[in-house]
Amino acid sequence: MCKDRLPDKGSEYEGEGGDINDAINVIVRNLTEMNKLWIRLGGGKSEKSKREKERVDLKVLVGENITRLSSLDGVNLEVYKATVLPKLIELIVGSKDFISQQYIIEVIIQVFPDEYHLNTLEELLDCCTTKLEAKVDIKNVFIRLMDRLADFALNSETSVTSVNKDLDIY
To answer: Do 55 and 42 contact (CB within 8 A), yes or no?
Structure first.
């Protein structure tokens, strides 16, 4: 209900109502709590069908929060790299739940722009190779990321190396 009242860049709520960092913090805090609840609901056996419905609903809300972060006007590459991605990686690592970790990393890959992924590829790959639970299917995560970046490289007039000069794609 309050997503349109966050202090985003250029919104009427920016200024006295806060700034983009406040909006990011509110969304990430909400996302973190929903993720914790989603994980906790996965453990019980009572009222299984009702719990499964609630779990699916929470999973959707977790994804919507990440999508909301990606749609904030104030989240540019600099803010994403310095603030948003580190907070999301902290959430992923802290959850210790492989289903949650895989879902969140897949949503990140899906909703943020390709340029962001190219400029944070090292951080994403480090997260996927050293910080995720062993049961996370990183093969599928890598396939989605590489497919996304390959499509970007094929369909973009901008070369991949001009987006990230430090990226060695060979």
So the answer is: yes
Domain count, the chain: 1
Residue 69 and residue 61: Cα distance in Å, rounded? Answer: 12
Which tokens is 34 given?
Answer: 């929903």
Specify the pLDDT at position 168.
55
Radius of gyration of the chain (CA): 17
Which residue is listed with tokens 């309050």? 2
As a 3-state breakdown, the chain gives helix, strand, coil percent values, each rounded to 5, of 70, 0, 30
Mean pLDDT, residues 99-117 taken together? 95
Nearest alpha carbon to residue 123 among 96, 99, 88: 88
Contact 169, 160 (CB under 8 A): yes
Average pLDDT, the chain: 86
**Does residue 169 fall inside a structural domain?**
no
d(CA 6, CA 170): 42
Amino acid at 72: L
Domain range spanning residue 129?
3-163
